[in-house]
C-alpha cells in the first residue's frame, strides 16, 4: 500500500480536529518552537479565532481554507496579541511563503473590516507554522524574499519580507520528542515503521492525557485519527471496529498485532527508504544507508538511491541542500548515485559529495 496515496482529506480533517484543542497548540509551541518569546506568552489565554475570521470569501486558491487552524494568545507582561496560523500540509508547496503572506494580509484586512481591530490600531503579530507530514523532506523556501529577484542594498528595504516555521514531523529527531507532549506523541505515531513503535506512541499519548473531563474531547479526536487514518494507512485493507477509548485501541492493536505483521511489511519502497533514513540518523548514517538501500533495491533501486540521497543531505547539511542538488540526480546512473551516497559519510560540505571523480 502506498502511504503517499492515502486519503489526505481524511488525514487533514482529523488533524484539524486535534489542533482545535488548546492543549495541543500549547504543546506545539513549547515542544517545537525554539524561540525565546514563546516563554513570554500567557498560554492559559489561548483562544481559537472565530470561524468567520479564517474562512470564506478569499480569492482564487484561497477561497476555501479548511486546512487552516488559527489561535490567538496574549503576551504575559504586554497588552499584545499573537495570532498563530497553522497550515497542515501533506505535500510540499514551493510558493508556501507567498501563499501564507497573501493569507496573512487578507486576514489583517478581515480583522479591520469586521471590527476585530479598530481603525488606526496596530494589527496583531502573526506566527505562521507549517505542520508537514509528507514523505519527502520539506525543501520549499521559508522566506518570502527567497521567491523574489535579489535586490541591491539600497532597494532591499522595499522588498516584501515574511517567514514561516516548519515542523517536518517525519524527520523530527526522536531524541527531541518529550514523553508528556501530545504533539510529540502524534509525531511518534506518524514516524512509526513497526507496529510495536505505533503501540508505544499510543501509550505515550494515553499517558500524557489523564482521564479527566477536560481531556475527554481531545482523547476522542485522537482515537478517531488513530482508528480512521493512522492504522488503516499502515495495514492494508484494515477496517478498525468502533472503539470507545485509547485503552481499547491499544488492546485491539496488541491482540491483532501478530496477524497484521505481514500486511504491514508490504507497504513498498517509501517505507524501506524512510525506515533506513530514520534509523540512520539515530544510530549512524552508515546503518541508515544500508537499510535504505536494502529495502529500496528490491523495490525500485533508482528511486531508492535518489530519495535516500535527498533525505540524507537534508539531515546532514540542511533542507536547502536537497533543493540545490535535486537536478543533479536526474539522469544519473545507479553507479553514480552509489558513489554520491557513499561520499555523504565523510563529506564536510555538499560540494564534497558531488566533486568530480578522481
Structural features:
single chain, 358 residues, alpha/beta, 3 domains, 49% helix, disordered N terminus
Can you tell me about this structure?
The chain has 358 residues and is an alpha/beta fold. The chain has three domains: 3-171, no CATH class; 174-264, no CATH class; 269-353. The chain contains 14 helices and five strands. It has helices at 8-18, 22-32, 51-54, 96-113, 182-191, 195-208, 216-234, 246-264, 269-283, 285-298, 301-317, 319-329, 334-343, 350-353, and strands spanning 41-48, 68-75, 81-89, 125-132, 165-168. It has a five-stranded mixed β-sheet with strand order 1-2-3-4-5. Strand 2 (68-75) and strand 3 form a beta hairpin. The longest helix has 19 residues, at 216-234. It is flat, with a radius of gyration of 22 Å. Residues 1-8, 62-67 and 265-269 have low confidence and may be disordered.
